[in-house]
Write a structure and sequence with these properties.
Distance between the termini: 17 Å
Number of helices: 9
CATH topology of the largest domain: Rossmann fold
Structural class: alpha/beta
Largest sheet: 6 strands, parallel
Strand content: 5-15%
Strand order of the largest sheet: 3-2-1-4-5-6
Radius of gyration: 17 Å
CATH superfamily of the largest domain: HAD superfamily/HAD-like
Length: 218
């Protein structure tokens, strides 16, 4: 195994609560109620796919593009106001970076990723970045992981994928990678029966990678 590919939202940063809060806020403004089930199904998907599900579930007349612009403006304001790394993120990156190529494969647009990299000082850890900007088929389709892994110059079976959502984990498996799920408070009820390992947190995932590789990551 030569690389570790990270999802971003809900895996590296505590951002799913932002998406869920924005989704509920918009629904209230439309006089609608948004279910946890719909929010969960939206997770990990390409942005337009995600808001298309949102539109259908709420029976809205606005186009997916209109809804996406509304959502992204609000999410970006919230991210600019402050982003929290998930527990153990820096320790995980410090442990893995000397031994593996690292990449990010996120369903977020590049401008969101740039905010995260700048505010948290993470750019130096990663050899490849793949956002939703040039992805035609969102997770659980493997396209985003195949493109990220190609940027690393590797094959999928040489890579670990770290994901917090079932849609994202399926994308990693569909790509042919070794998938470690790290469910968040928003995704722990989703199906992860198909992954290679379910970790309690990032540090547990790092320990599992060390065990699989049979090496010290100190």
């Amino acid at each position: 195994m030569r690389a570790v590919v990270f999802d971003m939202d809900g895996l590296m940063i505590d951002s799913e609560k932002i998406y869920w809060a924005v989704g509920r806020e918009m629904a209230r403004e439309f006089g609608k109620t948004l279910s946890d089930e719909t929010l969960g199904d939206m997770m990990g998907r390409a942005p337009l796919e995600s808001v298309a599900l949102y539109r259908q579930a709420l029976g809205l007349s606005q186009s997916p593009q209109e809804l996406l612009e509304m959502r992204e403006a609000r999410v970006e304001r919230a991210m600019q106001a402050g982003i929290e790394p998930m527990p153990g993120l820096y320790e995980t990156l410090e442990a893995l970076h000397p031994h593996f190529k690292l990449a990010i494969a996120t369903s977020a647009p590049s401008r969101f990723l740039n905010v995260v990299l700048e505010r948290l000082g993470l750019a130096r850890y990663f050899s490849a970045l793949q956002t939703s900007d040039d992805i035609s088929r969102g997770k659980p389709d493997p396209e985003i992981y195949l493109k990220a892994i190609a940027k690393l110059g590797l094959k999928p079976d040489e890579c670990f994928v770290l994901e917090d959502s079932s849609n994202g984990a399926r994308a990693g498996k569909n790509a042919g990678a070794y998938v470690i799920a790290i469910p968040s408070e928003h995704t722990r009820r989703q199906d992860f029966s198909f992954v290679d390992y379910v970790a309690a947190n990032l540090l547990d995932a790092t320990a599992h990678i060390r065990k699989v590789e049979g090496v010290s990551l100190e």
